[in-house]
Design goal:
The structure is a single chain. Helix content is 24%, strand content 31%. The protein contains 11 helices and 26 strands. A hairpin with a 4-residue loop joins strand 14 and strand 15. The N and C termini lie far apart (49 Å).
Length: 402
Amino acid sequence: MENIVVVGAGQAGAATVARLRALGFMGQITLIGEEHAPPYQRPPLSKAYLLGDIGVDRLYLRPESFYAESRIDLRLDTRVDAIDRADKVVIAGGQSVPYDALVLTTGSVPRRLPSDMGGDLAGAHVVRTLADVDAMAPGVVDGARALVIGGGYIGLEAAAVLRKRGMEVTLIEAAERILQRVAAPETSAYFRDLHRAHGVTLREGVGLTCLTGVDGRVTGAILSDLTEHPFDLAVIGIGITPATALAEAAGLEIENGIRTDAMGRTSDPSIYAAGDCASLPYRGGRIRLESVQNAIDQAEAVAANILGADTAYVPMPWFWSDQYDVKLQIAGLNTGYDRVVVRDGGAARSHWYFAGDTLLAVDAMNDPRGYMVGKRLIEAGRSPDPAAIADPVTDLKALLQA
């Protein structure tokens, strides 16, 4: 194998090329990205970066010099237009780039409002890329009025940052509660109370009819309850979708993302996928994981498998979210839970998801011990006594030796 091409210069793409070199691959590596900046962290964009606490250089995953020093051909500002599977080349920037193995780390794209709902008005922002946040920043000023559309983690994190910047924030969620798709009612209630305590006007069961504007700029919104409100800025946090257009055009199998096997191979054995764009087998079904941890771990597993490791990637999901002074850490996946056990330690609180007697996941709010113990138990396939979890005098660490 002489040429490995990676399409998508985000977290997964950067992890793939770095791992290939670390494992001793000496051939040609080409990393192609559409953005102007070298691979960078996305989570701090809407938090520390938007707040002005860190500069752009601190977002970079590695110094730009790393790629040249590692003999990685980093091509930025470059769009891949097509994959020619027969000739094993990608068409990028008007050039044909040959590959023996191709890795798609194309990530995901934010859902946007259609134009008839005001999605193309200036002042209507999604939060995904460095350019998105740089475009939003001038409107994030003390006293301005912001509408956040969507009560998932993207919307809640945006609301927290905008409040920290002194903005008047209204958050709407069309479902009956925030975090409905991803968390238990107990977790929803915790974050509902948190945001209201920080002055966010939070309205559940209320959607958006349309944004309104003057001279092409957002000036307000009409909500689904037919009320109209003035706003200076809107943040659209209604989810993301896997970036599969390139793979679809190449005829690869798609199933809620680019379908891969446990090794990360797509329906074409010379093409792999990793990160947000990839759908992988998990516990008899298929999942797609949107997290930094999965992007790194899956990409590194793919790099090893390209070089012959032939080892199945078994995800051990974990996630996090920072809102105000609360750090939420999540271990596991709560799909299929039928009971939530609450452990209330005052400032530290955790919600433990069970299916019958089996522990599935933990939401830990300012509770690093609960998170650490829960994560280790889940990864070991062990389930503690729910009554012991609920009892605040239980030493959680002792459960690891039980």
